[in-house]
Input
Amino acid sequence: MAAARQWAGVIGRAGGMRWPTLCSPISASLKGVRTTGSRINNARRHVQFAAGPSVSGVPRYAGPTEAEMDPEQRAILADIAKTRTTGIKGPFGPWLANPSIAAPSQELGRVVRYETSFPLRVSELAILVTAAATRCGTEWTIHRGEAEGAGLETEYIEAILNGTATEATFSDPVDRAVWRFADELGRGFRVSDEAYAALVENSGEKGAVELVALVGYYTYVAMTLNTFRIPPT
Output
């Protein structure tokens, strides 16, 4: 797998605010995003990941090397390695600069991914929606493989990638409710009454708490990856 891709022409609109062009390992184009109240008009959104080597996406900081780590940092790294199917790549390197950040961060990630009421397939659906919302190519690349392995349908993945997903895309009511809730929350930082009610009807209030935590955590992950330009491999 190529180690890097490049964000291309990242320009979009959300609530009248113009997004700046970003430098990141993988690129996306976000066109014509707008909100109506707290709802996103999905028909006007387009996300496109462009392949190719990145010139401006040289990693900024990958975290301390293993030789530089103290015993506490090494212990956290070992715990990450044994509890993650994604391995130690991703945001963990930069977080390890401060063990007091790394330890609770990786623990929260483990909980929201593996210890909620949602099956892994549905969690990965929400993670991909978050990766698209944050225009984080590395998060997308890592979790597309995880989503496929968990059984998420290819047509769902492609619709999220291409910005063509709507409620009609998802035949299962849980998938539909999770997609809409995660999409609205990830892009607008709030959800409509309709999206909230649909999720609670299908997954309960506990599910709403869990999904907010999952989207929030993977937004934090995406901010780390985008800021430090961490490649997917």
The beta strands are 13-14, 17-18, 27-30, 35-36, 39-40, 47-50. Residues 1-56 have pLDDT under 50 and may be disordered. The first strand starts at residue 13 and ends at 14.
